Amino acid sequence: MHYYHLIAGLPDLSYDDDKTPYRVEDFKQQLYEIMSKADKKLVHDLFLKYDNDNLLAFLRNEEAIFDSKGAFSHKEIAHAVQYVRDEINQNNKTTSPLDEETFTGLWHRKKPFNKKLPPYFKGFISDYITGDETLKEMFWEDRLASLYYDYLGQSKNQFVCNWAELNLNINNVMIALACRRNGKTHTPYIVGNNAIANTLRNSNARDFGLKEVFPLFEQIRRIDEGTNLIEKEQNIDRLRWEWIEEENTFKYFTIEQVIAYLLKLQMMERWMLLNDVKGKQIFKDIVNNLKKTALNPVGF
Asked: Measured in whole angstroms, how far is the alpha carbon of residue 228 from the centre of its chain?
């Protein structure tokens, strides 16, 4: 399906713009009014990043306020987390205050896990609850993001697959570099089974064997060497922005152009929020978490 009228009427976006022509939520609603069912699924998957944020916020604080851009409600996330807790209890049969027979009976009558939730949620919730002490603070976000991009890489749309692989590779490289700085092995923290992930797992070379197979490696490495933590995040987003523009050079009026516009809006809105009065506390929290990660990355 092509989107001639929509794309022709979209204002141009620049990474350095200080405001967006649309709110991300409003743009999504506009898209849903005209999109095919298959294209709506693509947009839905791109909005799972907000559900990731909401899930992690809930796991850290069950009273957390959710980002309204997420697709799943507080109740749905709460049920998913409780389901996994009960499943862990059922497997252990030692942490429930109920006797085993009563608990087992309740478990078998329990409402099943919500299949509308992305499949990586269940495993991530289990990992978080069981408390792997090597996965703390910001690394949980990296871990969840990597799982998300690994899932997104199964999309039937090639642009979305390529976008997912780009971000999976960026996350994996950044994690490997952080581990190296602290003299720790990076292998257990690499997600996915693409060529870059497998090369990272099997190489201890200075460039992890990536210089020839992953052209963006040197650029990511130079960004990672920066001392200003927020600038590092911004430069990674700029790298993503430039990739989007290059990837879509000859795709006119297609769903890929629509998705590219949405991805750019998401990046712009994130940084606008951090520069807004309402976002100052969020900005402060991010800086503090980044500092903690820089001093003690991956929970070491």
From this structure: 22
Tell me how many degrees the CA angle 90-91-92 measures, rounded to the nearest 5.
Answer: 95
Verdict on whether the full-model pTM lies above 0.85: no
Which residue is listed with tokens 């922005």? 241
46-85 tens-digit pLDDT: 999 999 999 999 999 999 999 999 999 999 999 999 999 9
Type of residue found at 269? E
Q: How far apart are CA 32 and CA 47, in angstroms?
A: 13
Please check whether residue 89 is in contact with residue 95, taking contact to mean a CB–CB distance below 8 angstroms.
yes
CA distance 251 to 232: 30
CB atoms within 10 A of CB 143: 21
Position 127, amino acid: D
CA angle 130, 132, 137 (to 5 degrees): 110
User: Which is nearest to 118 in space by CA: 50, 26, 38?
Assistant: 50
Distance between CA 67 and CA 211 in Å, rounded? Answer: 38
Return the structure tokens found at 99.
Answer: 């006797």
How far apart are the C-alpha atoms of 58 and 246, rounded to whole Å?
Answer: 37
Q: Tokens in use for 132?
A: 């792997």
The span from the CA of 2 to the CA of 255, in Å, is: 6
- Rounded CA separation 195/211 (Å): 13
Q: Where are the domains of the chain?
A: 4-72+117-299
